[in-house]
Amino acid sequence: VRLVESGGGLVQSGGSLRLSCVVSGLDFSSAPMSWYRQTPGKERELIAAIRGPSERATYADSVKGRFTISKDNAKKTMYLQMNNLNPEDSAIYYCKALRVILDTRLPYWGRGTQVTVSS
User: Fold this and answer.
1) pLDDT higher for 53 or 16?
2) 104: buried, middle or exposed (CB in 10 Å: 19+, 13-18, 0-12)?
3) How many CB atoms lie within 10 A of CB 22?
4) Closest Cα partner for 113 from 101, 95, 96?
5) Which of 3, 58, 59, 83 lies most in the core, judged by the most C-beta atoms within 10 Å?
6) How many CB atoms are closer than 10 A to CB 58?
7) pLDDT in tens, 39-96
8) How far apart are CA 76 and CA 24, in angstroms?
């Protein structure tokens, strides 16, 4: 299983970025997927998740209304559209996939992509 994030970079406050996570080696269409972010000295924070046949999306309060998670099953790619960015959004962003086998959930992570928002 391999997850590769891209799309990070430096952006001014108020700007937008779209992150991508390309997945291989996993049944992408059925796998629960999510985005996390982490800053130095802090725990990794779940910010958005998408799961189920209806691709129901959930968001952390800190990003609700500004970020949108989505999937393209044909491209095996998950996205995170980030709008109205502020310096507090600066972090390394990681995608995560779950392989569900009966009652077991196996997590897989990408290596992350850096997002820096300047004020």
Assistant:
1) 16
2) exposed
3) 17
4) 95
5) 3
6) 13
7) 999 999 999 999 877 889 999 999 999 999 999 999 999 999 999 999 999 999 999 9
8) 7
